Amino acid sequence: MSYIDGFVIAVPKGNKQKFIDHAKNADPMFIEFGAIGVVECWEDDVPDGTMTDFRKAVQATPDESVVFSWIEWPDKAARDASYAKMMDPANPDPQMDPARNPMPFDGKRMIWGGFSPVIELKA
Q1: Domain count, the chain
Q2: Domain residue limits at 74
Q3: What confidence tens digit (pLDDT) does each residue in 83-113 have?
Q4: Residue 66: CB partners within 8 Å, gap ≥ 6?
């Protein structure tokens, strides 16, 4: 089975196009480094929860939308090797330079993690 990196961020509503442009610049890098696919999803139906929810998780304000994204890798080893190349301090990848492709959101409130699928069902 593949390996998944998942992300949830809060993006100012006025930065939707900036976010899309940012993703269009950054996402091909993951494919170049071995990802099988990248999906970026803009909030459409994100209800408020009683105890917790996506908005609370990233401390989204009323003027922000929640973005849910994931990167699919062939396996964890491919993902780890790719990140090692992308983040190599001795040879930094220019695509990772925030001056080249600034994040249109507060990265400190991003939640992310790597996940091993336990069930995978496809049509």
Answers
A1: 1
A2: 3-115
A3: 998 877 787 667 667 777 788 898 899 999 9
A4: 8, 9, 10, 11, 43, 46, 54, 55, 58, 60
